[in-house]
Every structure is written in C-alpha cells, then in structure tokens.
Write a structure and sequence with these properties.
This protein has about 290 residues and is of the alpha+beta class. The chain contains four helices and 17 strands. The strands form four sheets. Strands 6-5-10-2-3-9-7-8 form an eight-stranded antiparallel sheet, with no helix packed on it. A four-stranded antiparallel sheet has the order 11-12-17-16. The protein has a three-stranded antiparallel sheet with strand order 13-14-15, with no helix packed on it. It is elongated, with a radius of gyration of 21 Å. The termini are far apart.
C-alpha cells in the first residue's frame, strides 16, 4: 500500500485504551526495527516538537502473535517517504503532508500491510501519566495565580485571566508517572516583559505555600476534566478543559488526562531556584496522587 495522504485517526483523546485497526504501511528503519502505521490508534505518541508526555506502552496483536510497541512517535509523510520523529522536515499542518502515529516494533516483528490487528494500551501506565498531566496543568495555573501581583507590565493572560508566567518563561515540561517537572528560565527576556526575577528567592517559601493552598482548594472542588477535540485526526486541535471554582480553564493540549479532579487526593508542588549556564531557573516538581 502507498503511504497515507491523511493524518492518523486517534482515539486516546477520548480515553480509549484499546481498539481494532488496519495496518496501512510497514517499513524497516535503519536500526532494523519495524515502523507500523495504522488507520486509527488509541496509542499516544511522543511528539518531538513538544515532548512533554512520552509514548504509551502498548501491544499489537494478530490472531497468531503479539508484539510489544517499543516506541510510538509522531511521523509525517508526503505520500512518497515516511519521516519519523526528529527527521520530520515540516511543521504540523503543512499542506500536502500527512502526520501519522508511528508504532515501532522489535526487529523480529513481521506484519503485513492490510492485516487486521488489535492494539491495547497498558492501562496503569496510561493512568499514571494522565494523572501527572492533569496535575501539571493545575499547577501551572496555580503558579500563574500566585505570581500575578509580581508583574510590572501587562502580559498575555492564561486560561483563567492571570498573567501567563508559565507561557512566558517555560523552558521544558516533562510529564512523569503521577507527577511532572517544569523548568522556567528567568533571564533578561522575562525581566524585559515585566517580571522582577531578582526578588523571587526571598518570596519562594511563601509562594510555594500559597500555591499548594490553592491546589488544595481546586482538588477539593472535584471539577470535571475533559478533552474537547475539534476533529478525530492527529493534528486537529484538542483542548484540556477543567471546571474550576474561578471559571472554566481551556488549554490546548495533545496529551491524556483524568476525567475529574475527584480522582485526585492531592496535588502538591515544590519550587527550587538554581543557576544553569549563567542564568537563573525555577524548577517546579509536581506530585499528583490519585485515589
């Protein structure tokens, strides 16, 4: 079969952890592993463009044999060549390109194009990452709120109308099992935007306490969490939506999440300042504990 001309249909945004699919393309990669494209998948892939949430753990089964998915990444095709991960040469949504979920199987795996398969995601690992991702978004909103009065200039607001420190300073975000790690760069560009980084160290313990108090209140509210999709395909816009006492928060997000804050017992963070390559950085470690 030729390479697909449309994006992969994905179901993980709806919370799916399994489903049937058709193999539409296979090819050997340079290291001997087998890249497999399906017409649809519940398997969340790593997107190297913003690799905050890693890939699901999953298994692909035929009638006769099962193969572990050893990696799952976003790829792209112009109809002639499949590019995988960091080799993708264009941005999402580029005209004439299909963005696809590439399931990578071990070197000894064999699958034929046109085969009907079953793909199942390891549910406990998915649940752990979903808790971590929901906690990460909550913590970033709470951080923005407790830092709101620090700004000396007007900046872009976040999903709750507070100055978006997270969006202005984020260097990296990593979703962990039942947690996350966010690193913020506190350099000259942030100071020029109106955030006085020099005074942050003195206020850090009080800011951490205020942040955690806010998280206690939000978790206790038990608000609904959902993903609203603007289509069924990989590059269609998806938004994380959370009902909070102060309003409905909407954040563009391609990851997986819990369905309610009532699934959490606590979300708590720790803040730490350090210096990296001559620049000050703030690290926020978030723990999201479920029932």
């Amino acid at each position: 079969m030729t390479l697909p001309l449309r994006d992969t249909s994905i179901s993980y945004a709806k919370g799916a952890v399994g489903g049937s699919a058709t193999v539409i393309h296979t090819q050997r990669l340079e290291d001997g592993t087998l890249a497999v494209l399906l017409d649809e998948t519940p398997c969340h892939p790593l997107d190297v463009g913003w690799p905050d949430q890693g890939s699901d753990q999953a298994t692909i089964r035929t009638r006769d044999i099962a193969f572990d998915v050893i990696d799952c990444v976003v790829g792209a095709s112009d109809g002639q060549t499949l590019y995988v991960g960091a080799d993708v040469p264009v941005r999402r949504g580029a005209e004439g390109w299909a963005f696809v979920v590439v399931h990578i199987l071990p070197a000894d795996a064999e699958l034929k194009e046109g085969a009907e398969v079953r793909i199942d995601v390891e549910q406990s690992y998915r649940a752990a990452l979903s808790a971590g991702h929901t906690g990460c978004h909550l913590a970033s909103l709470a951080l923005n709120q407790v830092l709101a009065d620090q700004w000396t200039k007007e900046v872009r607001p976040d999903a709750l109308g507070n100055p978006d420190f997270d969006g202005a300073a984020i260097e990296s975000s990593t979703i962990l099992e039942y947690g996350s790690r966010d690193v913020y760069r506190l350099g000259k560009s942030l100071r020029k935007k109106g955030f006085p980084t020099e005074s942050l160290a003195a206020h850090l313990p009080a800011l951490q306490d205020a942040l955690n108090q806010q998280l206690v209140q939000w978790v206790a509210s038990g608000g609904e969490v959902r993903i609203e999709s603007h289509g069924e395909f990989l590059t269609d816009l998806r938004e994380w939506v959370c009902e909070l006492p102060s309003g409905t928060a909407r954040i563009p997000c391609g990851g997986t999440h819990l369905r309610s804050l009532s699934q959490l017992t606590t979300v708590a963070v720790g803040l730490e300042l350090s210096e990296e390559n001559g620049a000050l950085q703030l690290t926020m470690e978030t723990a999201a504990v479920t029932l």
